[in-house]
Specification:
The complex is a heterodimer of chains A (about 300) and B (about 325). Chain A is mainly alpha-helical. Chain A has helices spanning about 20-35, 35-55, 55-60, 90-125, 130-145, 145-155, 160-190, 190-200, 205-240, 250-260, 265-295. In chain A, α6 (about 145-155) crosses α7, α9 (about 205-240) runs parallel beside α10 (about 250-260) and α10 runs antiparallel to α11 (about 265-295). Classes of the chains: A mainly alpha (about 300), B mainly alpha (about 325).
Chain lengths: ~300, ~325
């Protein structure tokens, strides 16, 4: 367990032990449940996770199969409540199965971006000096390059499958986290509890990983939900440009396919887009709620 | 003032040199990783290719040289402002980019202006009524725009304004073959500009609105705000001259950081609206493995971002005189 010294900056994250932890944990859970923004976002997000997990059960069969006459409007045939596209594929099945690609790419891209960003940011912020100068330069370098073009180039280097897309978005999105973590480490490394840990002779890595990192996490957790949201938006843009795995149904790809019927059957574009917006909205709500809970600020 | 501007410019320019060099090398190496080259694409499009003709194509474009030689050649040409030759479009990359640059610049400047003006206005209104119903309603609307893919907003705008209402065109940057001149031509161009600019701006409107709200609320707690109130200034003037002016510093900083994202977003929006700009050029260049064009576009966009951030530094020195003095 970590050091028994109350940190001077931020909230203690892993310092309490024993029976003191139980009521505190309960209080924290209650703080989450009392925040309406967080609850609303988490509920919508849970719904999408449910769709992704049970897609095969909810809409059995391949969503890319032709199952009905082409371009049925929503409500026209109750067997296909959201209609069918120009190839007679069920739109509802596409939306349900598409949640998999979006969530998978969003979460893995954010994980990659967070890992690189936290590593770079922690090194730069903790050590300072020439390491900081060099890494800050690297961050700037990535930030001057248009993110989306970078993603397209990386996807073009590999095959356009889910792994490559997640990797590309992760590789292009780490600088924001790196900046955030760097700033946190710079302010925390001077704080009293780090001094105490130093005086106890703890190794640098122990101080970085067990003392500073847990206390630097709250803003990173908020950033993580926004990163997943942005990754889903980027994936939608890529799929819309046809840089996607052709064997996997995705919301952005459905928009791209529906675009040809924009004048006659605009619902083919509207429905997947609204689904993307709802999924991203849920993550942004979670992010806003987490921000209010973890970084409380009294508004005037 | 003049000396401070010069000092700021010099500092940023010196700072930018290693960044530019780093970008050139990074982009160049990244493109080398891509499988296939322009010769492959040209050969596959013409349908017939012998090993000899492929080798000739590669030799012609210098693709058979070692990577380091290619990089050195590129740097040598770049020193003379020569970005190389595009195998795909059969013309010098500089000419190609100069053809597309005005379109992209017009689209980006318009979108950025839309985003900043609407975003700051909405954010200020939200901050002024913080916690009450105008703030709550606007917060929900802003959060929705924050969550919608920009290109989808564009598609829905096409359905409403082009298909249903027939008010605005949805393709290209002007009416082809109309032979318009003078004011009619300018009006025609502006009408073509509205939808793509709105699609590109939608996400950033939300970003700036949220940011303006947060920083306006942050400023309210400062001492100088209390002083301004004690002086008996009109509340509107206090908000405009004291609160907004200070809140603009973080907003413009983020606007500068987002410029690269705006250029990236232009790829999708330009493709969607058939807008002849650099974003679409970048995508076409990736698909055609036209590395010299892609490298040119990447370099120029990084250059644009650096120049824009320089301008923002100057703006900050004007907004908050303490910043430039350091």
């Amino acid at each position: 367990m970590a050091l028994q010294v109350e940190p001077g900056v931020g909230t203690p994250v892993s310092v309490d032990t024993g029976n003191r932890a139980a009521p505190r944990k309960r209080r924290r859970v209650r703080a989450f449940l009392r925040n309406p923004t967080f609850v609303a976002g988490a509920a919508i997000l849970a719904f999408f996770v449910f769709l992704a997990l049970f897609a095969d059960f909810l809409c059995p069969g391949d969503p890319l199969d032709m199952v009905a006459p082409p371009v049925l409007w929503p409500g026209q045939d109750l067997a296909f409540p959201l209609g069918t596209d120009s190839l007679g594929r069920d739109v509802l099945a596409g939306l349900v199965h598409g949640s998999r690609a979006s969530l998978l790419v969003g979460i893995s891209a954010a994980a990659i971006g967070l890992a690189i960003g936290m590593f770079v940011g922690a090194l730069a912020g903790f050590f300072g000096g020439w390491i900081d100068t060099a890494l800050t330069r690297l961050i700037e370098l990535f930030q001057t390059t248009p993110t989306f073009i970078l993603v397209i180039v990386i996807v073009a280097i590999g095959e356009p499958n889910l792994q490559t897309i997640a990797l590309a978005i992760g590789l292009a999105s780490w600088p924001t986290v790196a900046r955030l973590v760097r700033a946190q480490f710079r302010s925390l490394r001077e704080s009293d509890f780090v001094m105490a840990a130093r005086s106890l002779g703890y190794s640098r890595w122990r101080i970085i990983l067990q003392e500073i990192l847990p206390n630097a996490l709250p803003p990173v957790i908020v950033a993580a939900s926004v990163m997943i949201a942005n990754a889903i938006l980027t994936e939608a843009g890529l799929s819309f440009l046809n840089m996607r795995d052709p064997d996997i149904v995705s919301w952005g790809g459905m928009i791209g396919a529906g675009r040809d019927q924009l004048r006659t059957a605009w619902f083919l574009t509207a429905l997947p887009g609204a689904t993307i917006a709802l999924a991203v909205l849920s993550l942004n709500l979670v992010g806003d709620g987490l921000n209010e809970i973890l970084n409380p600020r009294t508004e005037p | 003032m003049g000396r401070r501007i010069a000092a700021t410019l010099r500092r940023t320019a010196i700072h930018a040199v290693p960044t530019v060099l780093g970008i050139i090398v990074l982009d160049f190496l990244l493109l080398q990783l891509m499988p296939g080259d322009a010769a492959d694409v040209i050969a596959s499009e013409s349908g017939v290719a012998t090993a000899e003709s492929m080798a000739m194509l590669r030799q012609h474009f210098g693709l058979d040289q070692p990577v380091l030689t290619q990089l050195m050649n590129f740097l040598g040409h770049l020193a003379q402002f020569n970005l190389g030759f595009s195998p795909r479009y059969n013309m010098p990359v500089v000419d190609l980019i100069l053809q597309r640059l005005p379109g992209t610049l017009m689209l980006m400047v318009t979108a950025l202006a839309f985003a900043l003006i609407i975003g700051i206005a909405v954010g200020s209104v939200m901050a002024a009524w913080a916690g009450r119903w105008p703030d709550r309603i606007l917060s929900v609307v802003v959060l929705l725009f924050y969550s919608m893919p920009g290109f989808w907003v564009g598609l829905m705008a096409i359905v409403l304004f082009s298909v249903k209402l027939g008010w605005l065109p949805s393709d290209g940057d002007m009416t082809v073959g109309a032979g318009l001149t003078g004011w009619a031509m300018i009006a025609d161009r502006l009408r073509h500009l509205v939808l793509p600019a709105l699609a590109l701006a939608s996400f950033f409107v939300a970003v700036y609105a949220r940011l303006t709200r947060a920083s306006m609320l942050e400023v309210q707690r400062q001492d100088f705000m209390r002083t301004a109130q004690a002086k008996g200034l009109h509340p509107f003037l206090i908000q405009l001259r004291h609160a907004l002016r200070n809140a603009l510093v973080p907003v413009t900083t983020v606007a500068g950081m987002h410029l690269g994202n705006l250029l990236g977003g232009a790829v999708v929006v330009e493709t969607l609206f058939g807008w002849p700009g650099m974003g679409r050029l970048a995508l076409e260049a990736v698909l055609a493995r036209d590395f010299s064009t892609l490298l040119g576009v990447l370099l120029l966009s990084s250059f644009l971002v650096i120049v824009a951030n320089m301008l923002i530094d100057l703006l900050h020195a004007w907004l908050d005189p303490r910043i430039g003095a350091a």
